[in-house]
Amino acid sequence: MVGNEEQVQLQNENIAATKVQAYYRGVMTRRAVKEQYGFEASTMNDIGRGDINQQSDANVAEARRLVMQIRASLEQFRYDPSREDEDRLRETKKMI
Predict the structure, then answer these.
(1) What's the average model confidence in pLDDT over 54-71?
(2) Do the domain assignments include residue 52?
(3) Is the pLDDT of residue 10 over 80?
(4) If we measure between CA atoms, which residue out of 13, 41, 8 comes closest to residue 26?
(5) Could you tell me which residues come within 8 angstroms of residue 13 by beta carbon, excluding any fewer than 6 positions away?
(6) pTM
């Protein structure tokens, strides 16, 4: 039977391994974002530094241009969610 100290040690090792895996996944994801989109994604730790939102006017203009390009490629949004076959799909039951 495993002693209490050994169980605690095993739990600590599992926690450490999980943290290393999460760190590695974050590094790989940020690298993939940089390769695909051309900008660096910040980590959650950057939020506390206060400099996360300081961007140059050129970066802001580029981001706005990208948003407008994506917006232009989207189809027109329909505010009316009803469909032609909505009555056929809706099932009504009698009140008891």
Answers:
(1) 86
(2) no
(3) yes
(4) 41
(5) none
(6) 0.40
